[in-house]
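User: quick one, sequence for these tokens?
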């Protein structure tokens, strides 16, 4: 068991400064000179690539839970997309999320929701949480993969490269919307899963934590908001279980399976039957 008292919650000033800078930069979208419909379109496309295919499908359902398998080249594409969401290195994202499931809503949970909305939403990211020293133990399967290591180490540099490409294509409007606004929405959408989906919504499954299903978080995150379903069957690639629980990432995985790119797809029913 992790000793949650071994490390004091010291501020992570680099994360604090980065987060403040991102929020201030996103305000540039209110300047008329930085608006164009093409820039908004770029932001929407990149949001799907980085939040939908990258974070939800790549970092979460594939890298963290191994809910399905894809060819290595496609796995690396999804991991690159997730890296461009700028939510820290992939090893940290995967490791902390695995800890969250193992210690959900207990003192060893990195974003323990019993410590309040603010802590689970954003404050835990800004502090040296006690579980930080355990990341290597929770990411042994990806820690030595060269591509994962590259993405983990250079996620800021990759973001800068994308920003330069966008500037070349459409000037400051593309940068403001395609980088700053997109990252702002990606950031809080992911944080809502940790905070709102342990506070608001409904519970279909009586699991040993405070996880809930929240429809509007699910819309923002392409299915991640069906969080209580996810906690009930963590290895399932499908989060929306009822017909009206829209899960666009699950539909994407089903499409990949149909065309032969995704195999060994796990669902709650297949896991119960041992499939």
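Assistant:
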């Amino acid at each position: 068991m992790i000793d949650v008292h071994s490390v004091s919650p010291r501020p992570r000033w680099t994360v604090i400064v980065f987060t403040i800078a991102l929020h201030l930069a996103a305000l540039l979208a209110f300047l008329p000179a930085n608006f164009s419909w093409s820039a908004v379109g770029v932001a929407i496309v990149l949001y799907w690539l980085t939040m939908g295919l990258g974070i939800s499908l790549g970092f979460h359902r594939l890298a963290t839970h191994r809910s399905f398998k894809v060819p290595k080249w496609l796995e690396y594409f999804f991991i690159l997309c997730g890296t461009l969401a700028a939510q820290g290195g992939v090893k940290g994202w995967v490791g902390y999320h695995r800890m969250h499931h193992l210690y959900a809503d207990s003192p060893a949970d990195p974003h323990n929701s019993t410590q309040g909305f603010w802590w689970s939403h954003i404050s835990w990211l800004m502090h040296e949480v006690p579980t930080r020293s355990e990341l290597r133990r929770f990411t042994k399967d990806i820690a030595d993969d060269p591509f994962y290591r590259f993405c983990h180490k250079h996620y800021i540099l990759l973001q800068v490269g994308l920003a330069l490409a966008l500037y070349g294509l459409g000037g400051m409007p593309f940068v403001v919307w395609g980088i700053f606004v997109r990252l702002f929405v990606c950031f809080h959408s992911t944080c809502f899963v940790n905070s709102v989906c342990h506070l608001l919504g409904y519970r279909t499954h009586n699991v040993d934590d405070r996880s809930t299903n929240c429809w509007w978080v699910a819309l923002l995150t392409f299915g991640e908001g069906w969080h209580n379903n996810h906690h009930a069957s963590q290895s399932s690639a499908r989060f929306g279980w009822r017909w009206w629980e829209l899960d666009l990432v699950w539909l994407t995985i089903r499409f990949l399976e149909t065309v032969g790119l995704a195999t060994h797809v796990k669902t709650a029913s297949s896991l119960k039957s041992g499939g």
